């Protein structure tokens, strides 16, 4: 999930305004995805660092964002300054969205007319009485229309969702300490950058692809996943009915080599099938948590 996707609407448009007013005083690139710069605020200049691939690691010393994992307008302004193509794409998307929204309004009006025309006399009378019973005047009618309009819009947006839950689960299964994983939320393609097993040229090609459209990719953090994986081991052991086996496994997973010792133990105690079923459900929960954290909608294609 990109930096723009996780910023609030206010931060996004104020940041765009700051960039347009040339409030990004200076910036430089630290590495492939990280930039630092100075952005002029209302009453002071602020030091800003953004990480395009891991936007939650971005930070700013302004009063609004200092010490908090949020995206402020200064970060957005720096992002547009560091990645000019992103600004051009954003402006173009705004224009396209406005045009699509106008077309959609026409479709809604058409649908409402068809719906009203389909009502029988008694049904139409019942609908009219329901509205009048609330003593609604002109402004209230507009409110009801907007509510219905938003409902339809949400339903249509759901049809556009392409990202599958199973894709994110597969990506979680692929992650290792040597790799960075990126999921294309539009095509469900999983991209892996691996400094140990893949040639440098191939890794750089993937990173360039991700950097061109960072908002299109979900990045999966290995260290967060590792912490979750360990907690899964403990939860699995907690679920065992045989107290003696559970106690032995608790001892095995303490300290270094916990995962390899755990894998040995489940083979030793013939718990492999049970573990894989448990792990599958746990990964699905983690995938949902990750998607929710990044405000991403998805298709739940995993059988219950």
Short description:
This protein has helices at 9-20, 73-82, 84-118, 121-132, 138-160, 165-174, 200-212, 222-238, 243-252, 258-268, 272-293, and strands at residues 24-29, 34-40, 45-51, 59-60, 179-184, 190-194, 217-220. It folds into three domains: 9-82, no CATH class; 93-160; 161-304, no CATH class. Residues 135-141 have low confidence and may be disordered.
Q: Please, how many helices?
A: 11
Question: Which runs of at least 5 residues are low in confidence (pLDDT < 50)?
Answer: 135-141
Order of helices and strands: HEEEEHHHHHEEHEHHHH
The helix content, as a percent range, equals 55-70%
Computed Rg: 25 Å
Overall mean pLDDT stands at 84
* Biggest sheet, spatial arrangement of strands: 1-2-3-4
Straight-line N-to-C gap: 27 Å
Number of domains: 3
- The total strand number stands at 7
Q: What is the overall shape? A: globular
* Major beta-sheet overview: 4 strands, antiparallel
What can you tell me about this protein's structure?
Helix content is 58%, strand content 12%. By secondary structure, the protein is α+β, with helices and mostly antiparallel strands. It has three domains: 9-82, no CATH class; 93-160; 161-304, no CATH class. The chain has a four-stranded antiparallel beta sheet with strand order 1-2-3-4. Strands 6-5-7 form a three-stranded antiparallel beta sheet, with helices on both faces. The radius of gyration is 25 Å and the shape is globular. Mean pLDDT is 84; it is low at 135-141.
